[in-house]
Amino acid sequence: MADFWADADRHLVRYAGRADFTREIIARAEGSFVVTEDGRRILDFTSGQMSAILGHSHPEIVAAVRRQAATLDHLFSGMLSRPVVDLARRLAGTLPSPLEKVLLLTTGAESNEAAIRMAKLVTGGHEIVSFARSWHGMTQAAAGATYSAGRKGYGPAAPGNFALPVPHSDWRPQLDVGFEMIDAQSVGSLAACIVEPILSSGGVIEPPPGYLAALHEKCRERGMLLILDEAQTGLCRTGSWYAFERDGVVPDILTLSKTLGAGLPLAAVVTSAEIEQAAHDRGYLFFTTHVSDPLPAAVGNVVLDVLTPRSSRRTRRYLGTVLRHGLDQIAGNHEVVADVRGRGLLAGLELVSDDLGRRVTRRCLELGLHMNIVQLPGMGGVFRIAPPLTASEDEITLGLSILDQAIGDAVKTGSKGA
Question: Which is nearest to 66 in space by CA: 291, 327, 264?
Answer without folding.
Answer: 264
